[in-house]
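User: Hi! I have a protein structure encoded as tokens and I'd like to know what sequence might fold into it. I'm fairly new to this, so please keep things simple.
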């Protein structure tokens, strides 16, 4: 602890910055410990737990460049796989303001980063942290009757909210429904069972007898909390849609990338990736997919318009946001290429 404190003070010294130029102090301190940087948020994995067969829980110790998050938000996590940095966004399960960050990551079929971490995560690994964001958060004035609903790995932002309210000493009425494939895949079951003041119900969609049968419906809502003041749901789109069908104003977040398909008539416009000199013919898909088809490897994370890691500068042309349907005609603007499709000729700095 003394060594780290001394290092932080030294990094702020203008004289030392001058003496270590042009690379700066970070270039040298990270040779001792890769998290000893002032300009780049990183974290060391200090513990690894595998609480279900299809997930891994990482306990991260962030450096002082990381500025924290609000319960329910997501963080971009960067890990090096086969010499290439890969970025994905995950929602912490730890309470807001906690010393350590807890991430529980579910393994998804075809998921490069999730599969790698489930199989290879170990104490001592260093990961990058960036771009905290998201508006799936509690209001400053907490509701008095709250229903949380989650499915699969959508439990993590809900756990962050529950733990935050527990640390605040909240005496509000709280109910929580969590859906998992089976009891073996229900994360945090023991902690939830012991959490005071929270009415917890489980539903299992493939195997096992839970408190609830089937998928979310009016009966599940009535069993958990009739007439809640606020509802928060995070999980697959089908779960979010089911909850919003009964509670239209529910706050929601989904973690599955939307499926985009080319329109019946692709525009056939010219896409110019100006930084690489690559030109492609538009087939109607998102710019990210078409860039990858053309052999480019742009950075990307969530692939659903949340994490912003794929944002690139559009220097000419018109694009349509495939999530909102909004058409943007500005000549110079930043666009998220994972959810933006060309309308005619487009130039992208990539």
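Assistant: Happy to help. Inverse folding works backwards from shape to sequence: for each of the 350 positions I chose a residue that suits the local structure. Here it is:
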């Amino acid at each position: 602890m003394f060594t780290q404190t001394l290092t932080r003070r030294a990094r702020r010294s203008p004289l030392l910055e001058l003496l270590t130029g042009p690379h700066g102090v970070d270039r040298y301190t990270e040779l001792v410990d890769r998290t000893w940087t002032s300009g780049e948020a990183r974290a060391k994995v200090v513990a690894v737990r595998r609480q279900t067969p299809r997930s891994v829980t990482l306990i991260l110790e962030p450096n002082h460049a990381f500025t924290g998050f609000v319960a329910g938000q997501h963080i971009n996590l960067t890990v090096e796989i086969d010499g290439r940095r890969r970025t994905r966004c995950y929602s912490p399960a730890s309470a807001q303001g906690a010393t350590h960050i807890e991430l529980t990551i579910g393994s998804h079929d075809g998921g490069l980063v999730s599969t790698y971490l489930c199989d290879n995560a170990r104490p001592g690994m260093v990961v990058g942290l960036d771009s905290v964001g998201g508006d799936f958060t509690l209001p400053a004035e907490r509701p008095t009757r709250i229903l949380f609903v989650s499915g699969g790995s959508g439990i993590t932002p809900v756990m962050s909210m529950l733990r935050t309210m527990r640390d605040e000493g909240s005496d509000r009425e709280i109910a929580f429904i969590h859906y998992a494939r089976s009891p073996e895949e229900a994360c945090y079951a023991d902690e939830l069972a012991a959490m005071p003041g929270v009415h917890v119900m489980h539903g299992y969609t493939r195997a096992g007898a839970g408190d609830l049968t089937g998928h979310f419906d009016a009966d599940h809502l009535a069993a958990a909390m009739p007439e809640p003041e606020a509802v928060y749901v995070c999980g697959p789109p089908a779960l979010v849609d089911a909850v919003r069908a009964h509670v239209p104003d529910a706050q929601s977040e989904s973690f599955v990338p939307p499926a985009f398909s080319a329109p019946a008539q692709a525009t056939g416009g010219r896409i110019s990736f100006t930084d690489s000199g690559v030109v492609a013919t538009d087939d109607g898909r998102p710019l990210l997919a078409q860039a990858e088809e053309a052999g480019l490897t742009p950075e990307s994370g969530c692939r659903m318009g949340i994490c912003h890691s794929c944002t690139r500068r559009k220097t000419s042309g018109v694009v349509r946001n495939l999530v909102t349907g909004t058409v943007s005609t500005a000549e110079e603007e930043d666009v998220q290429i994972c959810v933006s499709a060309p309308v005619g000729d487009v130039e992208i700095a990539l």
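A useful reference point when you look it over: The chain has nine helices and 17 strands. Feel free to ask if any position seems puzzling.
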